[in-house]
Write a structure and sequence with these properties.
The protein is globular and about 35 Å long. The chain has about 90 residues and is mainly alpha-helical. It is built from four helices and two strands; from the N terminus they run H-H-H-E-E-H. The protein is about 60% helix and about 5% strand. A two-stranded antiparallel sheet has the order 1-2. It starts with a helix and ends with a helix. The protein has helices at about 5-20, 25-35, 45-55, 70-85; strands spanning about 60, 65. A hairpin with a 2-residue loop joins strand 1 and strand 2 (about 65).
């Protein structure tokens, strides 16, 4: 089993958690595209949950008001890290 997807998810979560100015739109687009793929890791619940969260990273609560921010990104990273502690 290839772990490249796991590493990519972790890297994208880390980038969002570390940099509030990160391009959340590009990350959300990447997550949606990845979810449409055929990687066997997509069948793993923690992978799907992380991608699902990332796919909505750019949602807005209102004009100019992001629904998610660094606290959310850190929580998503923590949850993913608990599922894959050796990553």
């Amino acid at each position: 089993m290839s772990s490249s997807l796991l590493h990519e998810i972790k890297a994208r979560l880390e980038a969002l958690a570390a940099d509030p100015a990160a391009d959340v739109g590009a990350t959300a687009d990447w997550a949606l595209e990845t979810m449409e793929g055929d990687d066997p890791l997509l069948a793993e619940d923690p992978v799907w949950r992380a991608l699902d969260a990332l796919s909505g990273a750019d949602l807005m609560a209102g004009p100019g008001e992001p629904l998610h921010g660094p606290e959310d990104f850190r929580a998503w990273l923590h949850e993913f890290g608990e599922a894959y502690p050796d990553l």
